[in-house]
Design a protein that fits this description.
single chain; 7 helices
Length: 170
């Protein structure tokens, strides 16, 4: 959920805007980068560090408590969110940081600034930049899917490509 919705917690009027849906997509991207080892490869619980900050976002605590934790984590994403990314997604981290900066221009407690166009621009840059992971021993079987439609294929993270297509439909 968007931080603004979590902090409102039903106690004050909350106007749901398209930027809140885009912010939710941002959290789905974080989830994918943190809780999967690659396409169709969930990260087993025993491989997920107990100190992972994002775990605290998934609780039955009051919504505003979860919102405050998200604000705190997104104030220092290079120390809280990005270190949780699995090896496969490490090269996507700079784009995740760009999305955070775009979403929260000054602080995560500020109003979200995401637009469809700006989010797609960052995802397109990621598609053009991110390449196959290095062929290290534990990454041998993790290959990024290659586009087969229309001309030569290029390496892109599957999740990024799907997200871009979904945003273009909106």
């Amino acid at each position: 959920m968007a931080i603004e919705a979590l902090l409102a917690d039903g106690k004050e009027k909350f106007d749901h805007l398209p930027c809140h849906d885009l912010e939710s997509i941002l959290y789905v991207i974080f989830f994918i980068c943190t809780f999967t080892k690659g396409p169709n490869l969930p990260r087993p619980d025993f491989e997920t560090p107990g100190t992972l900050h994002m775990k605290s976002w998934f609780s039955t605590d009051p919504l505003n408590s979860i919102g405050f934790r998200k604000v705190a984590d997104l104030c220092l994403p290079t120390q809280t969110v990005i270190p949780g990314f699995t090896e496969y997604w490490n090269d996507f981290a700079p784009f995740a940081l760009d999305l955070i900066d775009l979403c929260f221009s000054s602080t995560p407690a500020a109003r979200n600034k995401l637009t469809h166009k700006s989010m797609i621009t960052i995802l397109e840059k990621a598609c053009a930049t991110v390449k196959e992971p290095p062929a290290s021993s534990n990454m041998k079987n993790l290959k990024r899917n290659k586009s087969t439609a229309g001309g030569p294929s290029e390496s892109v993270p599957l999740a990024t490509k799907r997200m871009k297509r979904k945003l273009e439909k909106v």
